[in-house]
Amino acid sequence: MPDSNPLLNWEDFPDFPAITAEHVLPAVREAVARSTAELEALEKAAPATWHGLLVPLERLSDRVSRTWGLATHLHNVRNSPSMRQAYAEAQPLVVEFQNRLGQSRPVYDALVALRDGPDFPFFSQALQRAITLLARDATLQGVGLDPDRRERFNAISQELAELATRFTNNVLDATQAFALILTSPDEVQGIPEDALRLLAGKARPRGHPLATAESGPWAVTLDLPSFLPFMQHAARRDLREQAYRAYVTRAASGKGDNEPLIRRILVLRREQAALLGFGNFAAMSLARKMAPGVGEIEALLRTIQDAATDPALTDLIELGELAAAGGQSEDIQPWDVMYWSERLKESRFGLRDELVRPYFPLPAIMQGLFDLIRELFAVSIEPVPDVPAWHPDVTYCRVTGGDGREIAGLFLDPYARPEEKRGGAWMDELHGRSTACAPRGRDVRLPVAYVNCNQRPGLDGEPSLMSFQEVTTLFHEFGHALQHMLTTVSHGFVAGISNVEWDAVELASQFMENWCHQPETLARLARHFRTGEPMDKGMMDKLLQARNFRAGSNALRQVSFALTDLALHTADPAGLDPVTMAHDIARDILPLPPLPEDRFICAFAHIFSGGYAAGYYSYKWAEVLSADAFGAFEEAGLADPAARRALGLRFRDTVLALGGGRHPMDTFRLFRGREPDPAALLRQEGLLPRAEDN
Ligand code: ZN
Fold first, then answer.
1. Of the residues 58, 187, 470, 477, which is catalytic?
2. Ligand 1 centre from 668 Cα, in Å?
3. Whole-Å CA distances, 216 to 145, 170, 179, 183, 387
4. What per-residue confidence (pLDDT) applies to 4?
C-alpha cells in the first residue's frame, strides 16, 4: 500500500526515524505518477479561473517537490551507499516530471490567458506575481516556440548540459592530475602541522603508502584544502611558483582543454537567447533577476572598482614592503600574494581559533540569536522536545508571533558527522507556507525550515565551542530561514524563499550576518563559557577589524570576474577570443595582472557549469542590498531600542514577509524608501569613509 510509505504519508512532520533508503524510489515513483495523472487531467480541463488552475497546479508540483526535497535532505544529512543509489535512481524521474510540467503548452496557455485577462489587475500582488513568473519560466523553457524551433531549443539544452558535465569533469581531472611530491623537510618549511597531515594523506595513494606528517613525503595537489594552506604557508618560493602555474592553467591544454568547450557554450547560449528573442545571453539571464540590465550592473561594478583601486594598490605595496623586509629581493608575483597576505594577517589580527572558541558556546549563541530575533522582529523561537528528527542531536524549534500564535518551525542540525552528512552549512525547506496544500481541517500549512551546520560537537562535557566564522555562518543561514518562516504569502509558488530572484536571495542572510560584526551585539554574544566574562576589547577589535583585511583587493577580484562574465555573455561569439577578452579585462582592473599563460576561465565553473552564467555579479549586487538595509539600522542609531524595533518590524513586514511575492526592488523600496545605494557597501568594507569618520 503506497500510503504506508513514510516519505509520502505525513502532514506536519515526516516520521524521520522510520524513513530508509528503500522508501525513496517507490515514494518518488508514486508521487510522480499521481502528479502526472493530475497534470493530464488539468491539461484536459484547461480551467479559466485562477483558482481552478493554480490550486491543482500547486498541489501537484508540491507533492513531487516535497517528496523529492525530503529525499534530498536525507541524502545530505544521512548519506549511505544505499541512499546514494536510491537517490540516483529516482532523480531522472523527477527531472523528467519537471520538464514535462515546465513545457506543458495547455498550462502555459491557461497562465497567459489569466495574465492577459480582464481579472488580472484585481488579483493580489502575490497571485499576480505567481502567474507572471510561472508564465515567464515556461517561456524561458521554450514552451511558446513553434515545433521546429522548440526542437532546436531542446537540442541545445541537451548539448549545453553535456558540455557543462564535460567542463566540470575536465576541471576535476586536471585538479587530480597534478601532484607536487615533496620529500625533504626544507621543502615544507612553514607549513603547519594539520596541513602537513593532509599533504601526507595525499601522498599515500600516490605511491608513498607510508607517508607521515612528520617525515613525508607530502603531496601538494590543486584541490583547495591542499592548495590553499600550501600557498599561504610554504616558505619555498620556487615551489609556490610551480603549484601556482599549474593551478591557473588547469583544464587548458591537451585532451581536457576547456577552451573549445567555452567557445561552443557561448555560441549555443547566444543561439538559445536568440530563439527566445533576446539580443544576447546576458539579457536572457537577467530576465529572471532583480538587476534591470547590463548597464546598471556595469555601473555598480565600476563604482566599486573606482573605490577599490587605490586601496588595492596600497595592499600590494604593503605586501611588497613586508616581502622585502622578509628577505625577498624580487617584486611580488602572483604566487607571493597569499603567502605574504597570510603573514600580514597573522601580525595584525593573529588570533588562534582556540583562543576565541571559549567565548562562543553554541547554547549561549543560540539564545543570543533568538533574543536578537525577538527584539528585532517580535517573534519567539523556542525548542520543542519530542519531535522526531533524523539524529538525536537535531533540535526542533517552534516559532510564534507576538500574539503567541504558531507561525513556523525549524529543525537545527548543528554538528559535523563526516560519515553521513555533507560539509558546509546550508538552509533548506521541509515545505513552505501554503493554503492550497493546507492539511485537512486547517486553513494554511505553516512553513518549516532546516538549518544545517558543521560545527564540532562539545568534548568532555563541555558545550560545542564555535569559531567566529561558525557564528557568522549560523546567523547567515538563520537569515535565509527567517525569510522562509516569516513569510505572510500563502501562494506556495511565491511564499518564503520560493522564487526570490537569484541576485536578491542573499539579502536576508547577509543582513543577519552583519549583526555579528556590530560591536554592541558582538559584545553581548561573546562571553566565556565557564566564567561568563566578556571578551576583552583587544580580542574583539581584532575580530571586527579582520573583516575588512584586503577589502580593496578582494573587491577588485570579484569585479574583474563579474565584468568578464558579463562581457563574455554580451559579445557576439563569432570571432571572439574568450581568453584574450578575459586578460584584457583583468589587466584593466587588477594591480597585479595575470600571467600571460593564465587560463583561469578554463576552470571558471561558476559560469560554465554552475548557475552563475551572466550572474556572477549577484555576489556584489546582494551585498549592496544587505549592507544598505543594515545601514538603515546604523543611521537610526543602534543604541536606540525603539528606533531599532520600528525598523526591525519594517524589515520583517517587507523583506522577510513578502519574499518571492513581490519584485525584490519593490520590496527593497518599501523597506528603505528608496533604491539601493552602493555607498553603503563601500562604507561597510572600509572603501569609503563612514559618516562618523568625517
Ligand atoms: Zn546564503
1. 477
2. 18
3. 61, 29, 14, 6, 49
4. 85
Catalytic residue flag (residue 477): yes
Sign, CA torsion 468/469/470/474: positive
The residues, ordered by sequence, that sit 6+ positions from 205 with a Cβ below 8 Å of its Cβ are none
How many Å apart are CA 57 and CA 55, to the nearest integer?
Answer: 5
Q: Read off the C-alpha cell for 247.
A: 593551478
Per-residue pLDDT band at 693 (split at 50, 70, 90): very low
| 340 Cα to the center of ligand 1, angstroms | 30
Query: What is the whole-number distance in angstroms between the Cα of residue 622 and the centre of ligand 1?
Result: 10
Rounded CA separation 346/365 (Å): 26
| Separation of alpha carbons 606 and 615, rounded Å | 9
Cα distance between residue 334 and residue 681, in whole Å: 27
How many angstroms does the Cα of residue 476 sit away from the middle of ligand 1? 6
Q: Name the E strands within 215-362.
A: 218-220
Query: Which cell goes with 86?
Result: 536510491
Please tell me the distance between residue 670's alpha carbon and the centre of ligand 1 in angstroms.
Answer: 23
**pTM, entire model:** 0.93
| Backbone dihedral region for residue 233 (phi beyond 0: left; psi -120 to 50: alpha; all else: beta) | alpha
3-state class of 405 per DSSP? coil
Task: Give tens-digit pLDDT for 374-387.
Answer: 999 999 999 999 89
* Residues, CB-to-ion distance under 5 Å, ligand 1: 509
